[in-house]
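Writing this down once: the sequence line spells out the residues, with the fold written below as integer tokens. This is how one looks:
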Amino acid sequence: MLTSELAARIMGPTEWLLNHEIDAMMYLFTEMTTLRRWEPSKVAFMSCMFSNQMKTSFEEFRKDKKKFKVLELLHRYDIGELPAHGRTRLMWDLDVTCIRQQLKQYTVSYAPMPYLLNKSNSDCGVYALKHIECHLLGLDFSLVNDNNIREARQKIAYDLWEAANDPEIILRMAQYTPPKMIINPLVELD
């Protein structure tokens, strides 16, 4: 729910974005992809839970391929029921066939940023969100800079307002159910 307090904090030039605003925008980025409002072939979100499940399952698979069984939680990703906030209902290898050809080890690449960008420090959350958005949409990072960071804050407020009034997103939020957690009494610490 977009309140005047939330909008004031987002648009306040000396206010830090809080986790709520950043989480809301990341949710919107995911929904824009899931609803195919953004080009889905360019955008994919992966949670650390999924990544850890894949890593653990692959290690189990390598130990004994004949006895390996896919865990229920991982299967729910396979049939498009997870992540809960971005359900696609698309099944791997039937509806989604390119995952095998694009799956590779993670790499880290650094994006060059101009020196002394974000002199106020309170805009770092705005920069982070807008750089993620630029990356998702294939836009140049230089589009976001100190000269237009105020407008970037306004755009975040507008995007949240628009989502709060979007019937499809409202319906998806109303139907949201968190994923079932599989509790394993064994905890391994590395």
In short: The chain has one domain: 4-175.
